[in-house]
Amino acid sequence: MANEDKNLIEILEENYPIDIGKFINYVHAPQCGAIATFSGTTRDTFEGKTVLELRYEAYVPMAIRCIESICSSARSLWNLNSIAVAHRLGPVPVGETSVFIAISAVHRADALDACKFVIDEIKASVPIWKKEIYANGEVWKENSEFLERRLELGKGMQDQGCGKKIEVETNDRKGCCGMKVKVNDGVADSCTSK
């Protein structure tokens, strides 16, 4: 079935908004009873700070290979027809879409579960980096999915790279919003110390 896989993966250069209709039309098929979508948009605040925009950078060839692999994994777990993934690079102002996923399947459960899997895996493993630009500063952000995976691989390690301590707070909610991650910058950064 690998030769029949219908995937559309695009990493869009700066100042190219995602054409959501294009990706929905790509996955639309008469044999499918469901199209599940996810649209990640820039919000205007984060922890009380005013967000002006997000900025994304990527290692594009590797990002595309990683997303292709994620699509293959999704297909091995669910009965899917088509998958479309788009991610913007560069500045993404408040209210605009930075990542969009559309997945079609005969049944809604497959499309919905696969859509959640794809966005979680993109955030955990694809080399796309996000900087939040605030009214009073900016910061590079690590996704909680990435940090969770890193913590699983390094159980028992207190120092998680560059001399920074990482605390993970969990709650009873399931899914992508079930934990908060804090990086303690009070420790000297061993990557930049001379």
From TrEMBL:
Subcellular location: Cytoplasm
Residues that hold substrate according to the record: H107, R108, K123, K130, K131, E132
GO cellular component, one term: molybdopterin synthase complex
Pfam family, one: MoaE
Keywords from the named record: Cytoplasm, Molybdenum cofactor biosynthesis, Transferase
One annotated GO biological process: Mo-molybdopterin cofactor biosynthetic process
Complex formation: Heterotetramer; composed of 2 small (MOCS2A) and 2 large (MOCS2B) subunits.
Family, as annotated: Belongs to the MoaE family. MOCS2B subfamily.
Physiological role: Catalytic subunit of the molybdopterin synthase complex, a complex that catalyzes the conversion of precursor Z into molybdopterin. Acts by mediating the incorporation of 2 sulfur atoms from thiocarboxylated MOCS2A into precursor Z to generate a dithiolene group.
Name of this chain's protein: Molybdopterin synthase catalytic subunit
Species per Swiss-Prot/TrEMBL record: Davidia involucrata (Dove tree)
